Every structure is written in structure tokens, then in C-alpha cells.
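Margin note: ligand = L-homoserine.
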Amino acid sequence: MGKTRIALLGFGTVGTGVWNILSTSKGEIEANIGEEIEIAKILVKNIGKRRRVEVPPGILTTDFEEILKDTSIKVIVEVIGGMEPTLDYIKMALESGRHVVTANKLLISKFGSEILRLAAENSVNLRYEASVCGGIPLINVIKESLSVERINEVAGILNGTTNYILSKMTDEGCSFETALAEAQAKGFAEADPTSDVEGFDALYKLRILSKLVFGVETNEDLIFREGITNITKDDISHAKELGYKIKLLAAAKRSMDKIVLRVAPTLVPEKHFLAGVGDCFNAVFLKGAAVGELIFYGKGAGELPTGSAVVSDIVGILRNKSTGQKDRKSTVDISCQTTEWSKSKYFVRFSMNNKTYDIQKLISVFESGNSRVSKMLKVEEAAKTSNVLLIISEADTLELRKALAKLEATFESVKGLRVLRVEDFEAEEFNPQILDAGNL
Ligand code: HSE
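Resulting structure:
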């Protein structure tokens, strides 16, 4: 039986997962590809560091050149993360004729097209299944099984850390800080959790997905991004009063000849599948013209789930060395549109003095443009004040800003104004419900 020698760049959480899976699934892998996979070298920063797995002496190196010079190594697996020095390593690996597997979302989001071109020029493969939603088979499914499907929408929970934080705040009343500290202790938050909680991590993954499903590069600066740091327990409980849960939703939709992308804390109907995705789980929802709705669910981070995606890419390359995987090319001229001016459904809440509450006047403030109030709920907060919760269907940002300015000008007692987006995932018939109007 032949043997393919590979190298790992990095031996942290994902690298250890790859090592463990290649050891425990050795028999299956050999039966699958008809040869053995041997990890010949592992690039690390510190050879003397204590590790959870024992590796044969001589495998660890701190010198990338040593790996590059070893022509018996056919596949280089990058699991270091970040941009430097990984981008240079990947380019050198491809230029030297090595297949590359990476789990690096930042790098694929920003330089995917460039390094895929480099791979094609050097007749080698570059695979990156683990870069989006860790263990969920998504990228290779979109590239292969859905290669001719016209996908109109992709939306999902692409970041485990923020989903863990929001779930803990919703289900257990945990504070943001406690939930974040737990996510860090469990090892799925990034070293600098800003990338998670401010939505950058989800944005990188959304760009990768949207390039795959729509076949066009999107301009990162045009993508609306908002994190979860401002979400309060009150937002969560008020969303619940109207039958919604708050999730950090990353969504890309075809809208005529444009794609609208955004990452934002979003109210999702409690009965929708995505609302039930708790803990650190990820889920992705796809709408295809022929296939209809598809849902992918699983672990988006962690040693073994992410390691599993990396190993599947290594095996994929070895089974299919010559073919490569072509990226989808868009057949229509679609471009990325900033979400700032695109229409969305909104959740608006504020408190006001009961004496100044006037339902008709309130509705007319929001309905002066094309917007419509589709739900409204008044919840008594104290003897004199109430919280007013509204769902506004399909307003654009400009219309909404005008309405909010008018609200504050018309009702002096309005305080604590909060606005969040709503995604119902279906074309809803306009069916206004003014709830609790009886006790005005
Ligand atoms: N920090 C990421 C998350 C890890 O929480 O989803 C996986 O990309």
C-alpha cells in the first residue's frame, strides 16, 4: 500500500483534532483512498511545549522551509489561523506544487479568489471546508451537489460564540460577560473575541458562502455588520413578547440584479428552525429555485468537528487529485448592494408615559412613508409608563430614521428607543395585529 506524506502548519485545537482523527480512523481512510496518510512534519512555534498528544520525535519543526524543501510532502494543511504568516505559507505551498487544505476563514474571505487562482495555475487543489461552520459539510455540498442549483438566499447562524452568549442570555438569564467568559473557557471564542461579538467572524463566513452560492465577489465595505454587544436582557424579553428570539443572523439574498448581505442581531420567529438552534451550534438555511429549502445544522467549532472537515478535505484531494473543484461563475450580472438602503422588517421598542399614549397617532407616525405597522403591543411597565413594541414591515433605513425622528418630536415622553431587524423568512401577507389595545 502506498503512502501520502502530509504536513500540518499549526498544532493547536484543530491540528490536534486532525492528528487524532487520522490516528483513530486510519483503517477507514486507507480503505477509502487505498493508501496510508502519514503526518510527516508539523510546524509549531515551540517544540518543547507540553501537548495533549504524543508525537514521534523529529516530526515537530519551527522551520517552514524544512517542510517546503521536503518534496515527499504532497499536501500542506494550514491550521494556524490569521493572516500572517499563513498567507505567505499558503502561496509558497501552492507555488511549489503542493495541494493545500485550510480552515482559515479570514484568509479565504479576503484572499480566496487570489489563492484559488494560484492553485489552478499550479494544477493543485485548495480546499477549505472547515473555514465555514467547522464540522457542517457545506462548502463541498454547495460546490458539488448544488453546483447547478440557482440559490436565491443563504442565511444562518455562522458564529458559535455569539449563539452561545445569546442562548445563555435567553434561556438562563445569564449576563453577556458571564456567557462570553464561558465561551472562552470552552475554547470556541476567538483569541480576541471582538471578532466574534462584533460580527466580523460571521461576516468572513458569509462572504465565503455568498461567493460560493452567487458566484460573485462582494465588497466587504458594503456589507452591513452589527455585533451583539448592545443586546440587552430587555431586548430579549421584549422580542419574546412578540414571539421572536434574537439571533446573530448572517444573510445574503438575491434581490433583482443585486445581492444584499448583512450580519446583524435579528429577531427570528420562535417557531422557525433557526430560533431553536441553541448553545454553540451553527445552522445554515439555503433556498434553491429547484431544490427548495435546505437546512444544515451542527457544530461550527471545536477540535473534532473542525478536524473532521479538514480530514475530509485531505481525503477528497487524495481521492480526486487531478480534478480540482471549480468555483461557480455567475451567469447574470449581479453586484453587491449596501444594506443601508435596502428594505427590511424592523422591531421598534420604547417606553412612554401612559397619558400621552395615542394609538392612532403612533401608527400614523410610522405609516407616513411606505412602512406599515404589522404588530403592536403595549406592556405596562410601571404605574405611569408602558413599553410599546412594534413590528414595522418593510421600511428602508431612510424611512425608518424619519419616522423615529418624528416619533420623538411628536411624543416628548418617548424614551429608550431601540431598533432591531426582523427576519420572517417568508413573504408574509399583510395582516395587522394590534394587541392589547383594550387596556389603553
Ligand atoms: N470563534 C468561532 C465561532 C470559531 O465561535 O464560531 C469557529 O469559526
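The CA atoms of residues 155 and 289 lie 15 Å apart.
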